[in-house]
C-alpha cells in the first residue's frame, strides 16, 4: 500500500477543518486535508446562513464553504478528495488509511469529520431513500414543489426545513412526537404562523407507503393510538445528527452519544498528537462559527505539539 508522511493531516472539510487548515498552513505545517464524504460539510446542504459574523446580508452555505476552501488553498493547504476509512493510533507517527488504498503517516491528526443526519430506522425509509425520502429539505424540496409533503422532527432544523418546504409545497404536515416542540420560540412562531403547515402533535411515523416512490405516510397518534394515512410525495427526516466518529472508537474516548471527548478548553484528545474540532466533538453548540473557532484551536494545539517535539 502506498505510504506518505506528513506533518499535519486534517480529516474533514467543514468550517472546523478549513479553519484548522488556514491556521496550519499559515504556520508552515504544510497540511494535507481530505474532504470526506460530503465536501464542504453540512453547510453545503443548507441555504442562507444569516448568523455567521462578517456577512451582514447573509451568505449561501455552499458559497461560504467554497470561500473557506479557497482561503485554505491560498496558504498552501493540499486539499484532496478522499475518505478516511480506518486509523491506527497505537504508535507514532499516527496512521490514517484513505479510501482503503493509501496510508498517511502523520505527526499530527486533526479530526473534523462533523456529524451526519439521523434516520428513524424504518425499513420503508431505507428502501425509499432518494425516491421521496430525504434528510435535506434544501437539497430535495424542489422536487416536490406544488405537492404535499411530510416532515418529522421538532427541533430548529425541522422548523427551518418545514418553513422552507412551505414556500415550495402545497401542504406540509409536521410530525411532532410530543405535545411540544424543542425548537426555539422564534422558529416555532414561524412554523405556527405559516398557513400551509399543519402540525400533528403526539404523532409518529408508522410506515412510509409506496412501492417505488413515496405515495403516503401512515402516522400514529400516541395519545389515541389511532392511525391515518396522509397522501404525500415527499418524506423529510429532520431529527438531529450523529457524530462521524466510528473509525476512531478503538483509540479515542467518546461520550455516550459518540462525540469525541476533548480536554476542556483544548482540542486535545486522549491520544497525543490527535486533535478534534467541530461537530464531531461538540454536542452543545454545533454552529459554523463555533466549529471554525475550535478548528483554529486544533491548529494552534497541533503547532505547539510539533514545536515541543522539534518536528515543526
Ligand atoms: P435536535 O436534536 O435539536 O432536535 C431533534 C428533534 O427531532 C427533536 O424535536 C426530537 O424530538 C425529534 N426526534 C428525535 N428522534 C426522533 C424520532 N425517532 N421520531 C420523531 N422525532 C424525533 O436537532 P436539530 O437538528 O433540530 O438541531 C440541532 C442543533 O442545531 C440545535 O442546537 C439547534 O438549536 C441548532 N440549529 C440551529 C439553527 C439556527 O439557529 N438557525 C438551525 C438548525 C439547527 P424530542 O424533542 O421529542 O426529543
List keywords for this structure.
312 residues, alpha/beta, FAD/NAD(P)-binding domain, 2 domains, seven-stranded mixed beta sheet, five-stranded parallel beta sheet, 7 helices, 25% helix, elongated, binds NADPH dihydro-nicotinamide-adenine-dinucleotide phosphate
Order of helices and strands: EHEEEHEEEEEHEHEHEHEEEEEEEH
CATH fold name of the largest domain, please?
Answer: FAD/NAD(P)-binding domain
Shape: elongated
Rg over CA atoms, rounded to whole Å, is 21 Å
- Helix fraction by DSSP (H/I, runs of at least 4): 10-25%
Number of E strands: 19
Bound small molecules, deduplicated:
NADPH dihydro-nicotinamide-adenine-dinucleotide phosphate
Distance between the termini: 27 Å
Q: Which structural class do you get from the secondary structure elements?
A: alpha/beta
By CATH, the architecture of the largest domain is named 3-Layer(bba) Sandwich
Query: What share of the residues does DSSP label as strand, in percent?
Result: 25-35%
Note the total helix count.
7
Tell me the CATH superfamily of the largest domain.
FAD/NAD(P)-binding domain
Keywords: FAD, Flavoprotein, Oxidoreductase, Redox-active center
GO molecular function, one term: thioredoxin-disulfide reductase (NADPH) activity
Family: Belongs to the class-II pyridine nucleotide-disulfide oxidoreductase family.
Cofactor: FAD
Amino acid at each position: 500500500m502506498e505510504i506518505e508522511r506528513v506533518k499535519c493531516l486534517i480529516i474533514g472539510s467543514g468550517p472546523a477543518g478549513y479553519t484548522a487548515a488556514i491556521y496550519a498552513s499559515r504556520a508552515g505545517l504544510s497540511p494535507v486535508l481530505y474532504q470526506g464524504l460530503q465536501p464542504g460539510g453540512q453547510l453545503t446542504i443548507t441555504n442562507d446562513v444569516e448568523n455567521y459574523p462578517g456577512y451582514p446580508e447573509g451568505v449561501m452555505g455552499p458559497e461560504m464553504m467554497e470561500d473557506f476552501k479557497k482561503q485554505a488553498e491560498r496558504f498552501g493547504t493540499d486539499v484532496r478528495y478522499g475518505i478516511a476509512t480506518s486509523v491506527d493510533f497505537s504508535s507514532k507517527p499516527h496512521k490514517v488509511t484513505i479510501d482503503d488504498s493509501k496510508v498517511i503517516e502523520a505527526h499530527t491528526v486533526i479530526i473534523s469529520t462533523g456529524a451526519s443526519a439521523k434516520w428513524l430506522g424504518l425499513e420503508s425509509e431505507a428502501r425509499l431513500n432518494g425516491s421521496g425520502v430525504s434528510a435535506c429539505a434544501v437539497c430535495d424540496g424542489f422536487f416536490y414543489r406544488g405537492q404535499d409533503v411530510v416532515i418529522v422532527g421538532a427541533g430548529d432544523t425541522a422548523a427551518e426545513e418545514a418553513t422552507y418546504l412551505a414556500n415550495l409545497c402545497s401542504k406540509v404536515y409536521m410530525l411532532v412526537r410530543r405535545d411540544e416542540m424543542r425548537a426555539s420560540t422564534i422558529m416555532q412562531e414561524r412554523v405556527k404562523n405559516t398557513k400551509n403547515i399543519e402540525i400533528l402533535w403526539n404523532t409518529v411515523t408508522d410506515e412510509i407507503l409506496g412501492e417505488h416512490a413515496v405515495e403516503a405516510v401512515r402516522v400514529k397518534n400516541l395519545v389515541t393510538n389511532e392511525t391515518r394515512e396522509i397522501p404525500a410525495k415527499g418524506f423529510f427526516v429532520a431529527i438531529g445528527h450523529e457524530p462521524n466518529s466510528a473509525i476512531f472508537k478503538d483509540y479515542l474516548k467518546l461520550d455516550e452519544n459518540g462525540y469525541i471527548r476533548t480536554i476542556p478548553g483544548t482540542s486535545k484528545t486522549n491520544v497525543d498528537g490527535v486533535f478534534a474540532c467541530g461537530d464531531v466533538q461538540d454536542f452543545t453548540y454545533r454552529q459554523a462559527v463555533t466549529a471554525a473557532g475550535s478548528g483554529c484551536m486544533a491548529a494552534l494545539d497541533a503547532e505547539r505539539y510539533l514545536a515541543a517535539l522539534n518536528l515543526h
